[in-house]
Records
---
Amino acid sequence: MNLEDVLKVAHRMELQGMEFYDEQKGRVKLQLLRELFDFLSDMERGHAAYLETQLKNMAAGKSLDALPDDVEMDRYRDIMEKQKIEPANLKTDLGDYSIMRMAYLIEKDFAQFYDKSAAESDGEIRDLFIRLADWEKEHAKMMKDEMSKIISRNALDLGFYPFE
């Protein structure tokens, strides 16, 4: 796959991630998770816009733009600090857990795609893919942390470790 094709796939993946979060934020019960999904939707939208600009740059024979500074985690920390998790019932938590599990797997897949693309690239495009992979790994970590809280809050013994 050539660089343009990889960027097109990455762009489509980011748009699909954004759509997933937009759809699912209405389904989760905890306000914290609605805000987190809204936050992740905005991040994916920004990633897609960045990739679209890079595709336009390539088509015009221009070099790639520098990656924007990573200010996303500051907003995430603000969301988490403002929230007080109210005790939820098991049904609510397990419903939210299922949605978060899907989100976790999506983010993990994105990170793996970018890692693979970085391994097959060099120079500035390799750096771009490494940065995108790092962002997606942070998103996956957010999901993993929240899933751990649900498991802990409900003293669940699932008999297996539900995520890596």
Note: Residues 3-62+89-153 form a domain with the Ferritin fold (CATH 1.20.1260.10).
---
Amino acid sequence: MSKELSLPLTHAEPASWPAALGIVLLGSIFAAVCAHVSVPLYFTPVPLSLAPFAVLILGLLLTPRLAAATFAAYLVEGALGLPVFASTPLNPGGLAHLLGPTGGYLLAYPLSAFLISFLYRRIHRGFAAAALCAAAGDLVILASGALWLTVLTHAALRSALSLAVMPFLPGDALKIVAAAALAFGFNHLRRRTV
């Protein structure tokens, strides 16, 4: 493994700006690919998407600054009209997409990725720790999505929770377990090869 790619998994930042920029760009591309793996749900304006999985796994693998920068770049790319967000009939893309029903989730991505990375680097790096950190980040995404939908639709909080949180809990539990397993396995393999 090259030194540039292994550094973000430690407490250090990459050795150079080009390496950091490359990591951020590759991470935002990964997030865009995950976002396009989505299924619209008939009972909510929010699609079921793998984008939160990208937040969880990159939060566990990158340093806090790189994780947040990756998702800030992802949001900028989307706001500029690049096709990086999950397409839904209610979201036309671009900046309007950030102001639509999924805006609360999207805007939480940088904070969530930063939080996951920050927590994961301060506690033991086992599978359970990775799962707890990923769950904390996922909770930030879901809470932000529900709050945004409440404000946007003027719905009661209970109604927003039934549209913006409850349908996603089973899938998010799977994403948390998968991200934690992959991060734990990757870090374990990296330690054995170093």
Note: The chain is about 70% helix and 0% strand.
